[in-house]
Design brief:
Elements: E1 11-18, E2 21-28, H1 39-55, E3 59-63, H2 74-90, E4 96-100, E5 103-105, H3 110-113, E6 117-121, E7 126-128, H4 132-139, H5 145-149, H6 151-158, E8 163-165, H7 168-181
């Protein structure tokens, strides 16, 4: 694994504007080591979170990760601790919005669960601490990914997700709309549209 190099280490971070509002974001790439979090990957996410706080702009996370990169051991787990700390420090300061864009497991679901808004895609997004195979092994109960951690489970039962979209594009469009209603930070007033 140490011989395999991927530019960006499976996560892309950046800043841009959505309907004229500055935002900071990270996007996990499941095609690189299953989107698993390494120490370098965590540092990139923490850096963009720090920038969002300094500027006072919303943070968007496009989540598609299998959890910690177990080959790194405690280094990747420590990276999750750094991310969770920032989630707490940014709470009530800038909006944090998590978009679950694919299967997320283990450490990859703790952060979205403590952000301000979490949204999923029907049929393709899943959030669970451990997957159906482990549940079967431990409890002898067969459960599908959708039953265990799909959008219906999290929007209707656990409350971890605020809503679900029909597809990825619909989710991104709905997020764009949500940003129109949110102040950029805790020092700004709620945006108002002028009446015609």
């Amino acid at each position: 694994m140490e011989k395999t190099r991927h530019p960006g280490d499976g996560v892309v971070t950046g800043t841009g504007t959505v309907n004229g509002k500055q935002v900071f974001l990270f996007s996990q790439d499941f095609t690189v080591f299953g989107g698993s979090l390494s120490a370098a990957y965590a540092r990139k996410i923490c850096k963009i979170m720090d920038h969002a706080e300094m500027v006072g702009a919303p943070l968007l996370g496009l989540n598609d990760s299998g959890g910690a990169r177990i080959q790194e051991g405690v280094a990747s787990l420590g990276g999750y601790g750094d991310i969770f700390l920032r989630n707490v420090l940014l709470s009530g300061v800038v909006p944090q919005i998590s978009l679950i864009m694919g299967p997320c497991a283990g450490g990859a679901v703790y952060s979205p669960a403590i952000t301000d808004f979490t949204f999923m895609v029907k049929g393709t997004s899943h959030m669970f601490i451990t997957g159906p195979d482990v549940v079967k092994q431990v409890t002898n109960e067969a459960v599908s990914q959708e039953e265990l951690g799909g959008s219906a489970a999290h929007c209707g039962i656990s409350g971890c997700a605020a809503g679900a979209a029909e597809n990825d594009v619909h989710l991104l469009l709905q997020t764009r709309r949500l940003l129109d209603f949110l102040p950029s930070n805790n020092k700004r007033k709620v945006p108002h549209k002028k009446k015609l």
